[in-house]
Amino acid sequence: EDQLSIELVRQLSPDRVLLIESRRHYAAGEFHKHRIAFQVSAIRHFADEVRAAGFAVHHYGLGRRPYLDSVSAIKHLVKACGDSQFVVIDPSEHHCAVWIDSLADAQAEALGIEIRIEPNTLFLTDREEFAAWAQPLKRPIMEHFYRRMRTKLGVLVEADGSPVGGEWNLDKENRKPAKRGMMFPPPLAISPDAITQGALKDVERVFPNHPGTTEGFSLPVTRADAERAWDDFVKHRLPQFGDYEDAMLTGEPILNHSFVSMLLNVALLSPMKLVRDVEAAYRAGRVPLNSAEGFIRQIIGWREYVYGIYWSFMPEYRARNSRGSKLDLPDWFWTGKTEMNCLSHCISGVVERAYSHHIQRLMVICNFATLAALSPQAVNDWFYAMYVDSHDWVVTPNVVGMGMNADGGTIATKPYISSAAYINRMSDYCQGCRFDPAERTGELACPFNYLFWTFLHHFADRFKNNPRMTMMLKNAQKIEADQMRQMMQQRKTFIELHVRGKAYRP
Ligand code: SF4
């Protein structure tokens, strides 16, 4: 489902291409309906693209009852065509690689075929090379990797090897809050064609009880539409992407974000094309440097880095839980029905369209999950199931590591946590909330406040030698004992009622 690359097919030039919509896989992940519909429709359009390129396609769709999973589809194909060799591209997800290995070990003989695994060239990073760099380090820092990638690929670098504009990273120029009334050009909406309509119907029929909805589906599912959506972003939203990268605004689920991660992650777009297009737009004077560098950092920096981290530390990485957080997710993670306005907006967006942008994921949802001591594995499963762009290699490092700092600090040098002050500065959510972002205790107190300060109080010892936490810990120490006691009590009540309890469940 994530290797829809026509170049790969051309390179391998196989006798036939096998495409499987695995009912068992989608059911096991309890995926959001939007996510399944996107992938199924993209696979079906890809089948046409492969046929048009002159290759035979064997396509096992959701509707064909005997082929519930990949093994039965492979068995059927081998029997029907009598092939002796089966070629797979090395999967990007660890559990798929384990499955392929087991297939090669145990089943190939029984099937009478040889399984050959070809390298995965859909990423810019060599897994072994990354692991050799990362594994000996206590903290393989993204910034170091990113600079190496800029230099290696020759992106936004001068002839003498220095960064264009004099600085490698303009993160500090990516933090403007957005104001109500500002106009943000929406992403391209594609009307579902007959193939997509068929996929939407199949998803509703086969997975009626999965979370989310197929209503309002307007994602690109062909390579041509993916490229149109990408060009639309470069033209209309990239120029201000840099300024408002960290902003959040009611009624603006996309803002200036590209909204192409799902296309990139199934190989309808290629990372190097995006990087070269953005660099060209900058060099032609169409976008400012903080936008170009900010976007390129996400692709050749963060995206490649988390892929490398994933393959360097899996499978133990997914089980990391450095603070022993155990709470399960409250039911409102599947509805968005909570009185906390920021979480309500961010989670409702996920329920509606299987998407929220980066800063909503990091500084609202994961921030809350960290402060409320939710289980990193439960949060990881939720992100994996609910997002249209989710794949294990991207979700796990971003949630267990970056989002919840449960990996012991391998990725992030400090937890990405904040009180209500950050959310109030970067969004308009607090203006419509029943809680008061300025209050730490009492009926109107914002939960982010007492969760934040009691978290710091509780883990003061653990973070005391971390220079990036010094200021936060000092501020926590200044809080009078009586107020800290009140916040502890309020935290306890909140967890009982809003996280563990039934009282607020929809
Ligand atoms: Fe979120 Fe607190 Fe602001 Fe309400 S007041 S929107 S809960 S940060």
TrEMBL record:
Domain of life of the organism encoding this protein: Bacteria
Name of a matching Pfam family: DPRP
InterPro entries in alphabetical order: Crypto/Photolyase_FAD-like_sf, PhrB-like, Rossmann-like_a/b/a_fold, UV-DNA_repair_photolyase
Gene3D superfamilies per the UniProt record, alphabetical: 1.25.40.80, Deoxyribodipyrimidine photolyase-related, DNA Cyclobutane Dipyrimidine Photolyase, subunit A, domain 3, HUPs
Designated name of the protein: Cryptochrome/photolyase family protein
